[in-house]
Each structure stands twice: as structure tokens, then as C-alpha cells.
Amino acid sequence: MSELRAKPSPFLNVLDGFPQDTPPLWMMRQAGRYLPEYREVRAKAGDFLTLCYTPELAAEVTLQPIRRFGFDAAIIFSDILVVPHAMGMNVRFEAGEGPRLDPITDRAGLEALRLLLDPAKVQPVYEAINKVSAQLSRETALIGFCGAPWTVATYMIAGRGTDDQGPARMMALRDPDLFQALIDRLVDASIAHLGAQIDAGADAVQIFDSWAGVLDPASFDRWCLRPLRRIVTALRASHRNARIIAFPKGASLEAMERLAHLPLNGIGLDWTVDRTAARERLVDKVAVQGNLDPLRLIAGGAQLEEEILSIRNDFEGTRHIFNLGHGIKPETPLAHVEKLVEKVREKL
Amino acid sequence: MSELRAKPSPFLNVLDGFPQDTPPLWMMRQAGRYLPEYREVRAKAGDFLTLCYTPELAAEVTLQPIRRFGFDAAIIFSDILVVPHAMGMNVRFEAGEGPRLDPITDRAGLEALRLLLDPAKVQPVYEAINKVSAQLSRETALIGFCGAPWTVATYMIAGRGTDDQGPARMMALRDPDLFQALIDRLVDASIAHLGAQIDAGADAVQIFDSWAGVLDPASFDRWCLRPLRRIVTALRASHRNARIIAFPKGASLEAMERLAHLPLNGIGLDWTVDRTAARERLVDKVAVQGNLDPLRLIAGGAQLEEEILSIRNDFEGTRHIFNLGHGIKPETPLAHVEKLVEKVREKL
Known about the structure:
The structure is a homodimer.
Chain A: H1 2-6, H2 10-15, H3 36-45, H4 48-52, H5 55-69, E1 73-75, H6 82-86, E2 91-94, E3 98-101, H7 107-111, H8 119-135, E4 141-147, H9 149-158, H10 166-174, H11 176-200, E5 204-208, H12 217-238, E6 244-247, H13 253-259, E7 266-268, H14 275-282, E8 287-292, H15 294-299, H16 302-314, E9 320-324, H17 334-345
Parallel strand pairs in A: 1-4, 4-5, 5-6, 6-7, 7-8, 8-9
Antiparallel strand pairs in A: 2-3
């Protein structure tokens, strides 16, 4: 499927090694609450997980931002906590509260996890990918995703998001063997989940390491870099043409340089990354994706247009995919997204 | 006072340009809840701000960690929110909740602030410094401090700590003139507060920019770097021998390199900073301070000793002050702090 679609997609071309005159564009969380048509489907579905697990609805909200803005890539509507859910954990999304899990605190909790992902949880994701893939034009790529083992583990151990994911950091320091066993499970689950998404029609996959920034360098190498290497290596062995983007939010450029030595196609940059330095140190190895501050998109006005131009200039002539440096926020005005699309596609 | 004390203090020697055989050592939040003698005084004082504003008690808790561990520097017990409090804001510390302020949302809120710091709030801080200074041996330096304008502003606008200090980032984007006016007030207040602390007996001052890491590079330069430059320049003009450390928590090494061009004596590194890169890019310009992960100090054991040795080796022969990469946590075992002191002072 990806072979067929590769040529005319600017997004895939950048991942395959070819810079474009205007950078391809998509936005993290582009299928989300800032869209009135999303809120309508979400209300119909009732809760968040029902939306994730109903292929027709997940496909519909995945396609909404493509229809409205013509982004160069769709990203399947799902959640990084689908994987622990499919490993048998209890996962809830409470309104305005973020995710809640029954935390794993000991080896018994780890041993209770399923070795194979529950098909009742993951099959709907693959079905949704299949549906979206069938409806996208060849110009628009489809992205599958998962959370990185470190990031998913932080939620499995804390049972929620915290300031600095201290609970997982403490377990990794106090009981590295137990923590390694959890990471190993998540590496296997991630390989399976990403591979199945590619089989279902995803042209590329993104691995979200949203909490990569809270670790010291030695811990980053052990809990982020090594597991990612195993996933990327296995995925390349099973899916020769897999296109893989890692998004290590909050990681230092030094950490990203080490990551860029993996056989990745792209690295996502958050909004705090120094683009001049990133250009010097990353773009000869990987495509770069990012990195507009989502708050600049909310604020709009002259500063937004200036920053978009600055991002384009900083990465001109390189393999650059335009994106935000983090997910779009629900309060973002639609008119500002329209302005973004216009400015990213304008000839320089 | 600092002239008299400069020579025999390893901490001041490092700031003055001379590496030491074993790095001087202190810990952020070393006067704090992990100490039983602190908890006793804190219980007697009742609330946190009473402790800050009672010179005898503030001096006592400042000295406690020096008596117990013989650190090379004492840091005056106070809080970065003393400045907005002394500017007339309502500041409360609610148990287990962190600080609460009545947020500034518009120009009227800004105009209502005092131009000169309320002596009832800041005089007790200077008195406490005076008391501590009189009781410290010449080997032990005394550090005064304030929050950086950006970081203090984030609390003044959000009224509390948040995930990513979005409220201040939004105000800075939507109404940069109003935000600049607030920063200008805080620059002046910081210069006054730091200068008075030096006059009262502080040998060095540290500027805590705890939220430096949430800004994109252009915003970092405007809201962190520029205000710091004004503070450092003014303080050097009024206090020729001022010794100044900046701690831009979460900032990238690229941002810290720009900061290192200010006439600073030292830069604090959080635990995520790559030490090899920091050594290459900072130590020819400033002393570096840090950067043990406070969670490693809680966890203890072999990993703690290895990491202490690794930090010492990474900065050997440079102007290095040993510290944590963030404040010590209340649950830290005293035995681990004892081990830290032993390992930092061991001959390599």
C-alpha cells in the first residue's frame, strides 16, 4: 500500500529523503476538540475510548481535518494508552482529568499483563486504519502511532500524568530489573502494534516519547534510546519499507543526536528546540518535523505569521515536515489554523 | 564582607575562577523538610511565610544543614515569591497545594503593584542574612537569591504553578507590552532585592529561572536572557564584586551558551543536562553547578555512588560546584545525604 502511495505524497517524499519546495504539513492532535465536527462525533460516541474503539467513528474524525484543511498526512485517531489497555490494564478517561490507570507497583502487577495484545482493543484500530486508507487520496499519507515504552510505562506506574513522572523514575532507579521487564513487554507490544498498523494501511508510524525530557542522559539512553532501537530494528526487519518518526518531547539536542543514529526516517522537534542547532546536527541523518509552539497558534496575529516564516526559513532546503511542537489545544481558533495552512504553503 | 571571606571558601574560589581538588558542595532546598530539625522549627512557626519572615527562625533553619553536613555554602531560607509578596500581591502557601496568588490579568493589576518593595516583607530576609553571616565560619559562603523575572511572572499571572505555565506564555504572546511592563517591574525588584542581600552579607546570589524550559528560543531570549542581562549588568555596576549564578532549569544547552556570555560567575545545570557537552561549551566561560537527579539521592545504593563519581569525573579539573539538578525532596533519607557528602569529598 505504501509503495503505491509513496510517489505523489510530499510527506512521504520528505521521509524518503527528498526535500520539498513547501514543507508538507500536519498537526499533532489535528483530529481533536478544536474542530466543531469532532466535538459532534465525540458527543455522539459518549466517552473517549468508545470513539477510539469504533472504527467508523475513529475513521470519520481522522478524516475531518483532512477534509477541512487538506493536510498532507492524516494520523489515525487513537491513544497511546490503547496499548496498556490491550495488555489488560484498566484505563479510564475522566472528563477534564486526563487518563487514569490502576498502577503497576510490583512484579505481580507486571505478570498479570497479557503477553499478546487483546484483539478486542487493537483490531478496531486496524479496522479504522483500513477504512481511512481506502478513503484518502494518494497525495495524503496515513500515520499510525504508539507511545514509546518509557512514556507508556510512566503512566502504567503512576496511574496518571504527574509533574515529572517521578513514580516511574523512582521504580527505574530502585528496581531496574522489574522496570526493564516492563519495558521489554512494551517493546514487544509496540513492535506488534506498529507492524499491524502498517499492515492495515499506515504509510508511516510515529513513536511518541512525550516524557523523554525528564531523564538524565544515562537514563535516557537506557529507557528511551535502547527500547527505540529495538523497536526500529525489529520493524525494519519485518517491514522493509517502514517509515518511522520518533518524537522525543523535551529531549536535549545531544539526546536527539544519539537518536538520529538509529535507522529512523524522521525526528519530531518540540517548540523549545533551537532550530539552527537542529539543522546543523540532525538534518544530514533524518527528516525533522516541527516545531511551532501551539500557544502561538492560539494567540495568532503578526507573531504567528513571523514564527511560521522563521521556521520555514530555518529549515529551507532540508527534509522538513511542518508541524506544531506539541498537540494543538482545544481553544485554538479555526481561523488561525487556516492562516497556518496558507502561510506554510505560500511560495517563499 | 565577601572580600574578607573570599579566600578560604572553596565555593567562592570556584566562582572566582579557581577549580578545587574536590568540588565544593551544597544542595538546593538543603534547608528543608527532609531534616527533622527543620520540621520541628517549621511546626513551631506555624505557616511557611511566618518562617520566612522571622529572622531568628529563618537564620536557624539556614544554619541547620551546615551544622549537620558541613556544606560549603548556606543558602538563606526564603522563597522566590517573597518578591511579589513585597510588591503587594496576596501570596498564600496552602499545605500540600503549593503557592497561591491572586493572579494579575490586566494593566490595572500591574499598576496596583508597589514600585518599592515593602520593607515589612524584605527587611526580615536581610536581617536573617545578617544573622547567618555573623555565625558562619569563613570557609562557608552564604548565598542570597531571587526568582528570575520570567519565572516569578509565571506565578503572578497563573496564580499558581501549572503544567507548562501556559497562562504567562499566552499573556506574553497576546499582550507583549503588558507582559514587558511586568518583567520591567520584576527586573527592578530583583536588582533591589539581590543588592540588598549582598549588602546584608550574602557572598553570592543565585537567580532561579525554574520555568526557563517552557519557552521557544526567541521567547527565551526576550523573557529570560534579556531581563537577566539587565539584572546582572546593574548588579555589577552597584556591587563590583557581586558573584552571580543563574539556574535556568530546563533550558537547552544552546540557550545556556547564550546565557554564558553574560558576566555571570556560574550556571546551574539541571539533571537532564549532558555533562560532556556542557563541559565543552560552558566551562571556559563560567563555573558549572550541579547536577545529580534528586531522585537518585532518594533511591541511594550503587547507582547513587556511580552517578556521583560520574559527575565528578565529567567535570574534573574544571570550575565545578557539586549540587543536585533540582531541590532535594522531603522523602530523601538522611543516610543518603551523608553518603553524598562522603563521596563528593573523597580523593579521586
